[in-house]
Amino acid sequence: MDQSLCYQSLTDVALMLRQRTLSPVELTQLELDRIEHCDSTLNSFLTVLPERALAQARRAEDEIAAGRYRGPLHGVPIAIKDLCDTAGIRTSCASRILWDNVPDSDATVVERLEAAGAVLLGKLNMTEFAFSGYHPSLPIPRNPWGLDRSANGSSSGSGVATAAGLCFASLGTDTGGSIRGPSAWCGVVGLKPTFGRVSRHGIFPLGTSLDHVGPMTRTVADVAAMLGVIAGADPRDPTASSAAVPDYVAALDEGVAGLRIGIDEAYLAVGATPDMAAATIELGLTLERLGAKLSRVKIPDVDDACRAWAPICGSDALATHANFFPARAGDYGPSFRSFLQMATKVSGADYAKAHAARLDFAGRLATLFRDIDVFLCPGNFGPPLPTDALPPDMLWSPDFWMFMRLTAPFNISGSPTLSLPAGFSDNSLPLGVQLVGRHLDEATLCRVGHAYQGATDWHTRRPRWD
Question: 345: domain CATH number?
Fold first, then answer.
């Protein structure tokens, strides 16, 4: 089969599978062959599951042939970040601490993907425990747009595998930018849903009050299809929203006429490279040409919100790791170990101050959305950096906080945020722009992103490294 098929969108191959012009078994074998050929270079997978994937593909093929079609994920090969519990399959969080951890049950999102008929190719690489650095004993994922370039983190394997055509969609998690950063730097689409829109049962936490689970794909339509499967209430996760799940796919073609898009040029100018700022503004102008109303607005100050992130997330992480730290401090990599050590110095007063800053920013941002429907800003400060420019102790460097400034505020607020490919730098590396929405209004973000992709072709560009 033609390897270019691996770069098709999820929705395109879903139609072929439903019409039986494409076999789930053949498609899954094609992806497994591609993983075997490519991933020794890219390092996007920690665990590949060929026997399980082919068994799921055969079952999907039989069900589709018998007229029992389950929906747009039926028979489609996907992959998930290795902090999602999978029954009988190692879930390591890319750490030696959990290297032998084999859960007895699946995470809710895994259950829902399998109930939709998706084929699980394997578990994806990531930074240790979804923070900023990799455990030194494990390989670092390599960006297919430039093998010497970082794929960002923490859902780096998800970004690399999706960009390189090693799966048709993946799951990532996002505590301070970990879906949107890899999406921006790998040239794919990533959605951090509203806090609680997707159950986190069976997801190993980084920051329990900041974590989000969401899809990473090659088109907005694919994100909509994935979100429709994984979203919804879950009695095993009391933080999961009980709000009804809309038909995200059905809303895609409503267009953007009349929608109010806010942009703060002063916000995007601080730290963003000129090409990143230009791409953000051009995305707004494209939406304006499509009928949206582009408004200049002022986002609430993000500095206190960003400063609040570390004490909140660190304290959450320290509580989660109480059984391992400090007893097994030497088994952690330097980045995550330093994060936990920092958290031991956070006082109750520090946490209370950070929590107050969180409430203040979230309230002010909600007020902004009385006047706009979507807020537009860069998905990162610029194109991918060289891998060696991101040291293990980056937590303490100015670069780390420049990363966080454009993403972490929307974890602090819990706002849904969509990252879109929106151009390339002068050295042909991808640029990603974010759309931020009201709580539980992912449908509008997908609608706007889909309209933008209908008017541009950035999302159709593919890395040709292999």
Answer: 3.90.1300.10
